[in-house]
Amino acid sequence: METSKGLAPISSTTARILILGSLPGQQSLSASEYYAHRQNAFWPIMHDVFDICGDYETRCRSLMAEYVALWDVLQASERPGSMDADIRTATAVANDFETFLEAHKQIRTVFFNGKKAEQLFRRLVPDDHIVGIRLVGLPSTSPAYAAMSFEDKLDTWRRELTRYLRGIEVCYE
């Protein structure tokens, strides 16, 4: 079984939030782009909340301009396919969050893109790495998560990210 290896984070040292997926799917890995599957709702949601659009590089720069970092919980794992349910947790290796968060001291909220990402993070990342950081689970933007409509996913993501945005505005007043 071949091991899937994740992508480098999209981040700047000014990031205030971190959005974590589990591990990129095959289309994302092939394209070397987060959420490359055309039916994934991530980028349409970012467009709605932050007015992010354009090619992949432009979207990534725009996301960083909104103080958002993007990464995955896993650095690597065996996974036959792209489904989170196929991740072989016995082979899962977490990214180095201790070093990442040390370099991104302003991050105070981590949003999880789906339950699997949150479960893996809580299982693999020691609590002492995340002291003072709020952890928030959000519905998966994956097209495989069909229990929730796009509109409901969008509403939930918008509501939670808007709470974050209001917090940033309050800090600057």
The shape is globular
Radius of gyration: 15 Å
Classified by CATH, the class is Alpha Beta
Name the CATH architecture: 3-Layer(aba) Sandwich
Summed over residues and divided by their number, the pLDDT gives a mean of 89
Uncertain residue ranges: 169-173
The separation of the N and C termini measures 53 Å
How many DSSP-defined strands?
A: 7
User: What percentage of amino acids are in beta strands?
Assistant: 15-25%
- Largest sheet, spatial ordering of strands: 3-2-6-7
Q: Give the helices and strands as they follow along the chain.
A: EEHHHEEEHEHEH
Number of domains: 1
Q: Number of helical segments?
A: 6
Sheet with the most strands, sense and barrel status: 4 strands, parallel
Query: What is the CATH topology?
Result: Uracil-DNA Glycosylase, subunit E
